[in-house]
Amino acid sequence: MIFVNKFSETKIYLWTFSGLTAARHLYEKLGFVLDDEYTDNSWGNTVVHQKFTLEL
User: Fold this and answer.
1) Total structural domains in the chain?
2) pLDDT in tens, 2-55
3) Do residues 14 and 51 lie in contact, with contact meaning Cβ atoms separated by under 8 Å?
4) Which among 1, 13, 15, 26 could bridge 53 via Cys, Cβ 3.0 to 4.6 Å?
5) Pairing state between β 33-40 and 47-55
6) What is the pLDDT of residue 8?
7) How far apart are CA 24 and CA 17, in angstroms?
8) Is 53 exposed, middle or buried (0-12, 13-18, 19+ CB in 10 A)?
9) Which residues, 6+ apart, have CB-to-CB distance to 14 below 8 Å?
10) Strand 33-40 vs strand 11-17: parallel, antiparallel, or unpaired?
11) From the CB of residue 22, how many other CB atoms can be counted at a distance below 10 Å?
């Protein structure tokens, strides 16, 4: 977060996948909120991509 604050950003986001429960718990503990998700099948398996956003 120190790195982000050096650039005066107002929000940051990250992409992950559903089913990564421990990671999602960590992101939410840090203040990230699920902002968007979509289902994709480009790798031969159905994957739900999730975008988490943190307002700074």
Assistant:
1) 1
2) 677 677 778 899 999 999 999 999 999 999 999 999 999 988 899 999 999 999
3) yes
4) 13
5) antiparallel
6) 76
7) 9
8) middle
9) 27, 32, 51, 52
10) unpaired
11) 7
